[in-house]
Amino acid sequence: MDKIRVRFAPSPTGGLHLGGVRTVLYNYLFARQHQGTFILRIEDTDQNRFVPGAEDYIVECLNWCGLIPDESPLKGGPYAPYKQSERKSSYQKYAEQLVEAGYAYYAFDTTEELEQMRIRFKTDENPSPQYDSRIRMQMKNSLSEPEKARQWKSEGLPYVIRIRMPDNEEIHFSDLIRGDVHFNTGQSDDKVLLKADGMPTYHLAVVVDDYLMKITHAFRGEEWLPSAPAHILLWKYLGWEKDMPQWAHLPLILKPDGHGKLSKRDGDKLGFPVFAMNWTDPKTGELTAGFRERGFLPEAFINMLAMLGWNAGTEQEIFTIDELISQFSIERVHKGGAKFDFEKAKWFNHEWIKRSSSERLLPDVKKYFDQAGIHAEETLLAKVIDLVKERCTLLPDFVDQASFFFLRPAQYDLEPIKGKWNTDKKMFFAEFADKLSSIHTWDFASIEQVFKAHAEEKNIKAGELLQPLRIMLVGGKFGPPVFAIAELLGKEETMGRIKEVTGLLGE
Ligand code: GLU
To answer: What is the pLDDT of residue 273?
Structure first.
């Protein structure tokens, strides 16, 4: 078998939807599993939809996810360039070859004439007429008016090249997920292949480039299924059928209620991200939230995406990228759409935070402390991460759960203490703070021992003292075990906080 070559071929038109990242992931896993090559090709032939910054954004998303292409516009490779706008000159000859063979034709219709066509041919039977086998002979093209077309062309009238779709042919192809798929060409329009400015459309460019770049497998979203018949015919008409990639059309990612495709609007409405990273539309300034900025780890994001449409056939849900590479199989991807569940996405992140070492988490967590304006010294932060990670679902939770290690609380929630506060307790804490100063080895066990011994001496139940102590150290009723907190805060700070709050509480 030829070396496996797969591609992710985005159009740089905006933020990268999580479905797009899943397409990248499945391509990547398949390539790695077969020691193949994973290619990033930028499909930017539609200049009207070009959005500045979108290409760099895609590259950054792939970097963040660790899904790095082997060949790309940035890296180059044996089939460069990898950006279709830079390959413009290579498409025209194939479009002309199709015209010569009778599989395509020149069409001279103006925008106004196309608009009129939609009105002129509208009937009850055909409410939205398209440029197809039923209508083409009544339009301005080299099939309906061959003589005139020659003249128009020599006069320099602008024209496009359209595929001539057969009016009633069954097209079959085999899809690795869907099995045998068939279409009747009667439903398909004569798609434009080459535009008046000489740029190919997606339909021509995708086939030519998949051929020239020796793509062996084309995995893409289900939304491309209706375009497949035209693509299959182009492979055949260009004489490349035996080199055609194997197809897999990946299932849609659905709204949480299962009704329709998950859109960026759903995310805005329901309060969760839909893009991989924050995306700001350069035209409108509108910001769409991303998983990265929401505090997801790329390992968790990838793991969650892998499971949206695939499973290993076992109970296992948490997979490292290496496990995914060895266990993934495209045949096990489901046909049906996968419902997106944000709570489940957060569960994956929580699991990954718990499993990750403090070294792994430190740089990411540190960023959130920096953003909050809290200087978190790294040696202490590493220990704090280990202590609180069980309580964190998203990365910003570390700031909420642990800022008190680096800053004295600005406020203390004294209400839960006040009701049961008395002179005995005040005495206890004043003396306890002093006793702490005599501890030589400042650790969990010795702090706990001094605390318990003193409580016994004062004849107060330890249980009644633990919550006040927690609030003194943390500011509120949360956090990891209180003596572990004291250990990390250090002797001076622990004593300082106890004294401060004891003072605030009065008699
Ligand atoms: N350029 C298409 C897109 O934006 C790629 C479709 C394909 O992979 O064939 O999704």
So the answer is: 97
